[in-house]
Each structure stands twice: as C-alpha cells, then as structure tokens.
Design a protein that fits this description.
CATH class of one domain: Alpha Beta
Structural class: alpha+beta
CATH superfamily of one domain: GHMP kinase, C-terminal domain
Helix content: 25-40%
CATH architecture of one domain: 2-Layer Sandwich
Largest sheet: 8 strands, mixed
Number of strands: 14
Distance between the termini: 35 Å
Number of helices: 9
CATH topology of one domain: Alpha-Beta Plaits
C-alpha cells in the first residue's frame, strides 16, 4: 500500500455520500465557440430554471488500488456510455482532485424531464456531478461550504460541460470575462445580485415547446467546433459582448422591450451562424417557424411581453413575466401547442439554484 493510501486508511471519511439537485438553464446571450480547456470565446448569461433538474447521488468507499473505479446508473439502469464519459472527465481532473483514485465511486442520476426536449441535460447533470464531487472533497479535506465551494464547483462543472457552470447558481448567471460585469471571468459562473436585477426579471417563466423529440442532429461539441475558422466568428464574439452589456442594463432597469429584442436577436444569431457554417447545419423545423411567427403576431396585437429563445435545436423556449402568465399560457395552450410533437410542452420558471438533498435514493 502506498503512502497516500495509508494516509487515507486513517481518514475518518472512509465512506460517505453526497446528493444534489441541480437545475438546467437557458442562455439569453449564447455561448457558442470555445478555446483551450473549455474557455468561452464570448461571455454569456442565462436564466437558471426551477423544475427541469437532475438529482444525483454519489457514494464513495475507500480502496487500496490506484485509478478511477466508477459505477454509474441513470434512471435506475446501468449506463456504460455515460459511465465512460464521466470516468474520462474524472481522469482529466485528477491533478486538481487527486483523492478521487483512492475511492470507489457509485453515482446514480435521474432527470425530472424527458430526454431530447430542448432542455440542457448536460448543464443540470454536470453541475450536479460537480456539486457532489466538491461535497466529497469538502468532507475529506474538512472544507466549508462557502462561496469558494460554489466557485470551485462551477469551475469543475465548466470543465465537464461549459454551460453547466451557470447552473451552480440560481437566478441570472453570467459566464465569461467582460468589462460589463464586475467579477466576471472565464473560470466559473457569477450570479447577478438582487440589486442588479429589476423585480420584473426575478419572476420570469419559461414554457418549453417541444417541436421535436428527435435527438439533436449536431452535438454541442461539434457545434462549437463549427466556429473554428467560421467567417463570421470574430464579428459574432464582438456582437455578443455588446449584447451582453445591453442586456445587463435592460435587466437592471426592467426594460422588457430591449430584453425581448436582444434575446430574440441572440437566438436567431445562433442559428444563423450554424446555417452559414461549413458544413451547414439547419436545425429549425417548419413548426419552429410557425411558433415564432404566431408568437410575434400575438405580441404585436396584444402588447404582452412574450418572447422566444432557442438552444441548438428546433424546440422553442417561450419567455414571459410571471405577472402575464394567465393570458400567455392560455395562448400557448390554444394556439401554439398544436405545433408541438404530441401536443407536449413543459412549464418552467426561473429558479433558486441547486438544492442539497439529505437522503439517499431508494
């Protein structure tokens, strides 16, 4: 037995558990393009969701052999594809978390939302993984669960899946260095303070309209790679900087009109970039356009502050103030749901962030 493992055998935390519920998020200014080790090419900002989340349970037990020892289950079933992905991630952070090879790890994960629904499962699952790992680290090393804990969790979430770093906090969360936001950086997400958010944007809702449940045609990794050598890449990154600064101002002032303009511009810019990439990628479906057109007509005719955004797929996130939810949700049910696959949509809202779970999954 080597010296490290001997020290571990004297550690009172020979076994332990950690469990977190972490939400997904929906970007308002999009992160699209990266460099180095998961460093964003432009800053982004997102709403953290409430009900679309991943529950993850981690159990660890000391062992005497080196290397990563992992068993992973998803929705109660062994999942070797994700187990391999997580094992590779754990190996990639061994220099920062060297204790990992001293323990056998058992991870169980479950989502509150179905697969391929336009909700970023990598954001919720990888933030939950990072929170569990940092809880394990804190237990072993005797560290507090303070602001540094959350920054470290956001850092590791970023390394697993870029946008996951924003899901470590609730409300509105920025990621990426920008002069428009003090404290912003490329290493971890930064939550906006209450003083930086007008009351209108503290209670916003997100209806996810499922145009297609088919798995997206291009992975996030491949999508980001499309920005390498893209003819409009530099213009896009500059545009994102300007949009983020303007959006922060709108969020602080309660300027819903500019919020709508900027969020929709960002969503369409993301898809325009993919359409003119090489190879070209078109992710919109006919019903995506139908929803967008009907939403805009409804807004013009009624004055309600409804807008849309999209991730890298055909499904539409409909954003609106909670105060307008009655009329807007009736409009969704009566006029938009018909364009959803199986009339399926998900009602969600801006949430408060991760929740530490106290009990093991049964």
């Amino acid at each position: 037995m080597n010296q490290t493992l001997k020290q571990n055998s004297e550690n009172p935390t020979l076994t332990g558990t950690a469990a977190w519920r972490c939400p997904s998020n929906i970007a308002l200014v999009k992160y699209w393009g990266k460099k180095g080790r998961q460093i964003p090419a432009n800053p982004s900002i997102s709403f953290t969701l409430q009900d679309a989340h991943t529950d993850m349970h981690l159990a660890w037990k000391a062992k005497n052999t080196p290397g990563i020892d992992l068993e992973f289950t998803f929705e109660g079933q062994l999942n070797y594809k994700f187990q391999e992905k997580i094992a590779k991630f754990l190996e990639s952070i061994m220099l920062e978390m060297p204790f990992l090879e001293q323990y056998s790890l058992n991870i169980a994960s479950r989502n509150s939302f179905p697969h391929s629904t336009g909700i970023a499962s990598s954001a919720s699952s990888m933030s939950a993984l990072a929170m569990c790992l940092c809880t394990m680290e804190a237990a072993i090393e005797g560290l507090p669960q303070d602001e540094a804990f959350y920054q470290r969790a956001s850092h590791f979430a970023r390394l697993a899946s870029g946008s996951a770093c924003r899901s470590v906090y609730g409300g509105l969360v920025a990621w990426g260095k920008t002069e428009a936001l003090e404290g912003s950086n490329n290493e971890y997400g930064v939550a906006l303070t209450e003083a930086q958010i007008h009351p209108t944007f503290r209670k916003y809702k997100d209806a996810v309209l499922i145009v297609s449940r088919t798995e997206k045609e291009v992975s996030s990794r491949a999508g980001h790679a499309l920005m390498d050598g893209h003819p409009y890449a530099e213009a896009r990154y500059a545009d994102a900087e300007v949009n983020l600064a303007a959006l922060l101002q709108a969020i602080g002032n309660g300027d819903v009109t500019n919020f709508i303009r900027l969020v929709e511009h960002e969503a369409l810019s993301l898809h325009a970039l993919m359409m003119v990439s090489n190879p070209s990628v078109v992710l919109f479906k006919p019903n995506t356009w139908e929803i967008i057109n009907r939403l805009r007509t409804f807004r013009q005719e009624t004055g309600y502050n409804i807008c849309f955004t999209l991730d890298a797929g055909p499904n539409v996130h409909v954003l609106y103030p909670e105060a307008e939810s009655g009329i807007v949700e009736r409009f969704i049910r009566e006029e938009l749901v018909v364009y959803c696959e199986g009339n399926y949509w998900i009602a969600d809202r801006v949430g408060s962030g991760p929740l530490k779970l106290e009990h093991e999954e049964g």
